[in-house]
Amino acid sequence: MSKKIKYGKSSFTLAEVLITLVIIGIIAAITVPVIMANHRKTETAARLKKFYSTLSNAIRLAEIDNGTTLSEWGNTAFDYVVNYLNITEKDEDNDKYILTDGTTLTIGKASMGGLWTEGAPGPGPEQAYATMLTFDTNGDKKPNEIGRDRFIFYFVTGGQRTAAVSSSRTQSGLVTFPWAYGENTTRSSLIERCIETKQLVESSDFQFTLGFCTELVMRDGWEFKDDYPLKI
């Protein structure tokens, strides 16, 4: 007589299923925010690098077509390059431009005063101008804060200060801060100044000291390193 052997069907209990779901939920809660944060950093850095490249190319084309250089354009520097940018719309009231990729660019012009000549304690005959460019990597979306989604560049035109104190000199061109001392700023100092951005915004002379976060990203190869001090 043949005997049939019956095998029981194994299954998970409700408690085991719930425990598994809880574990999956915990892992997701830990990893998903990290993945999203890394994605934001990568996307923000890519857009910032693209804008800098586009703007630099626009300057070169404008210089070729006009037979002049950025250093000669005075406080109308942006007027020379605007036609070489991919702009779809302009907000006349705020002097803001909307680019084809949804990013925005806001223009602010400010005179930097007379230039020192040969270290003399008085202003020279020339004038330097700083056109502040505020690039927003995600348009009007929040947080709308410098160093997080807004980054500062400057067009600096005119002569250069030649005072004995290096911090009195200006540097012409597309820069992250008008004063020449920024060229020798250490990375640790950039991090500290980037942290102070909020206080700089609230100060009376902020318009010339807001590019430290931008400079930090540039020096790090257009990347937000793990020690970048602001949340992206």
Mean pLDDT: 81
Task: List low-pLDDT spans.
Answer: 113-125, 161-167
Form type = elongated
Helix and strand sequence: HHEEEEEEHHH
Number of strands: 6
- Separation of termini? 75 Å
Largest sheet geometry = 6 strands, antiparallel
Number of domains: 1
- Helical content (DSSP H or I, runs of 4+): 25-40%
What does this protein look like?
This protein has helices at 14-66, 77-81, 187-195, 197-202, 212-219; strands at residues 87-91, 96-99, 104-116, 123-136, 150-157, 173-175. The termini are far apart. The radius of gyration is 26 Å and the shape is elongated. The model is unreliable at 113-125 and 161-167 (pLDDT under 50). The protein has one domain. The relative contact order is 0.12. The protein is built from five helices and six strands; from the N terminus they run H-H-E-E-E-E-E-E-H-H-H. It has a six-stranded antiparallel β-sheet, with helices on both faces. A hairpin with a 6-residue loop joins strand 3 (104-116) and strand 4 (123-136). Helix 3 runs antiparallel to helix 5. With 232 residues, the protein is α+β, with helices and mostly antiparallel strands.
Topology, pairings included?
Elements: H1 14-66, H2 77-81, E1 87-91, E2 96-99, E3 104-116, E4 123-136, E5 150-157, E6 173-175, H3 187-195, H4 197-202, H5 212-219
Antiparallel strand pairs: 1-2, 2-3, 3-4, 4-5, 5-6
Helix pairs in contact: 3-5
Quick description:
The protein is α+β, with helices and mostly antiparallel strands and 232 residues long. The chain has helices spanning 14-66, 77-81, 187-195, 197-202, 212-219; strands at 87-91, 96-99, 104-116, 123-136, 150-157, 173-175.
